Amino acid sequence: MMFRNRTGPRSRNDMSSHSLAINSAKPLDLSKWRNVPNLMIGGGAVLAVSGLAIFGFKQFGYSYLVAYMFCLSLCLGSLFLVLAHHLFDAGWSVPIRRFCEHIASLLWGWMLVLVLPLLVLAPKLYPWMSSNPASDHALRAKWPLFTLPGFYIAIAGSLIVLGFLAKQLRAWSIKQDATGAAECTYKMRGYSYWGIFAFASLVTMLLIMLVKGLEHEWFSTMYGVWYFAGSVWTTLATVYVITMVLTRLNILRPVLHHHQFYYIGSLFFAFTVFYAYVTFAQYFIIWNANMPEETFWYVQREKGTWFVMSIIFIIFGHFFLPFLSLLRIDAKQSFKLMSFLAVWAWLMHFIDMTFNIMPVLHPDGFPFQTIWIDLGCLAFIAGILIKVFLIKFASAAPYPIKDPRLIEAVGQFHPVPTQISGGELDETSEHDQTDEFQKDDIH
């Protein structure tokens, strides 16, 4: 195969300067951070157990649920990015695909084990489990899903199928590192074809059982889309940070073109808008329909400090701040700005999870007195997942070394030279441009 080298000047000075900034950045030294996952696990466990001893099982269960749904969203968001990569046969995302596969593969086994405390505490967390279907129309209408067997089967089955999908995608990707066979690419595409449908259905199922089940009377057809949008939004912020760190560690530097950072930032910007659209559409439809079975959910979240949080954080913090910050094209390639927005995205998503879960237990306002339990549970779960992720990352090549689209991701080859190959506007060679001019003259 003949590879076409990029020739000609670049037309985007800001992107060129950004590429120079990447190459000239000093390598990071993360040796001092090696024990952070262990400290998170130990410190988080102490806080979580202390909260359990002081406030009881119910408060602990709700705090653990907030932390679990936050971490689950990162795994699901990573799985979606891998599925989208194969479905669209993308080239630019090859260098970042491998660590996304590692994060997504945490669904297999680990997220199933970590959900066990919620399954054990379920009778204390979900009021419908102690209700009589004969006198509860909403519960009777959702039979057999909202039954004890249905609850446990739905959660376990969803996590097993999603975990198996993520595991297979990672396994075939790593196998291609050894063989370089085209069969691996076809297998990953095949899993992605049916996987995207399973993903949409099972993510919604998990959200219905784990979060919406806290208020089983409530009904919203957009709730699964809301969680999906927030999950991918938070994951993209995480992917940007990991890509930046791996570049500074000289791990991804050889295979990264400067357009990867721009594309990740652009997707983060797009999902900022998409999340706002879904969140507002859900509110608009439910409030205008004015059905008590649906509006009570929002009425409950307009009490006390919950209303203030919805205005300050959900509206301005989750949408306006990142939206306005990313309007400039060069903002998506500013490491300082994107690092801040990534941390901000984690904070907003955590508050969003709290806003959706905690009003059931604390209807009068945000429980500031127990937030340390939430953070302890989050540190414990995240610490375990980070530790496993680092083990997975060290066990394989840092990027798909024999993926057929890798050379295209670097920006050095495109099978069909076009004006946007490699992410630039002037990537076509003079010979290609001359051919186009001759065609125009003929016509």
Set out the fold topology:
Blueprint: H1 13-24, H2 36-55, H3 57-87, H4 94-104, H5 110-114, H6 116-125, H7 137-141, H8 148-179, H9 182-210, H10 223-248, H11 259-289, H12 292-300, H13 305-325, H14 335-357, H15 371-394, H16 406-409, H17 430-442
Biggest pleated sheet: none
- The percent of residues in helical segments reads 55-70%
**Structural class category:** mainly alpha
- Quickly count the domains: 1
Count of alpha and pi helical runs: 17
The percentage of residues in β strands lies in under 5%
SSE arrangement, N to C: HHHHHHHHHHHHHHHHH
Uncertain segments are 1-20, 418-443
Shape: globular
Mean pLDDT across all residues, rounded? 86
| Rg, nearest Å | 24 Å
Q: What's the number of extended β-strand segments?
A: 0
How far apart, in Å, are the first and last alpha carbons? 33 Å
